[in-house]
Amino acid sequence: MSSIIYPGSFDPVTYGHIDIIKRASKNYDLVYVSVLDNNKKSPLFTVEERVKMLKDVTGDFDNIIIETFGGLLIDYAKEKNVHMILRGLRALTDFEYELHMAQTNYLISGGTLETVFLPTDLEYSYLSSTTVREIASFKGDVSKFVPDCVAQSLYKKFGY
Ligand code: PNS
Q1: Which residue has a Cα nearest atom 8 of ligand 1?
Q2: pLDDT of the chain, 160 residues: tens digit per residue
Q3: Entry pTM
Q4: Which of 86, 107, 121, 125 is deepest in the core (most CB within 10 A)?
Q5: Domains of the chain, earliest start first
Q6: Which atom of ligand 1 is nearest the CA belonging to 85?
């Protein structure tokens, strides 16, 4: 059985993430969508809220498991017995950070944890959770970037 882990902060999940999840679910038997539970990052949404939003927007896929992880990604992958990490690439600007992360994970896992990249759909190449949070923080319209239930959660967070 082919399994892959799609890790991230998902603060909050966007149409860009959903596109990657959809494509991964077509190409792997099992996809772990794994939300980093790391207080150091001081996210906008709690890890429980992020997991709930992910579950709400991925109800159509039956080969996806959404859960949280803490600590090192290599330890979590080992615990799941999964040897492949998936990351989306939006633009060249993502590449250096992603390459370093992939190389580090490969090295510290003793050459057992590989990373594959999926280029995001052109439609979402500009999109990031950071941008979505920023727009919402100024009470802007985020309906083009995130599903309605996520937009509602953002509006509630920022009181509009
Ligand atoms: O959505 P993000 O914030 O770009 O995701 C980053 C994430 C969660 C994939 C990365 O920060 C991570 O794997 N953190 C866990 C800690 C770890 O293993 N660090 C070493 C890898 S360089």
Answers
A1: 8
A2: 999 999 999 999 999 999 999 999 999 999 999 999 986 779 999 999 999 999 999 999 999 999 999 999 999 999 999 999 999 999 888 999 999 999 999 999 999 999 999 999 999 999 999 999 999 999 999 999 999 999 999 999 999 8
A3: 0.97
A4: 86
A5: 3-157 (3.40.50.620)
A6: 9
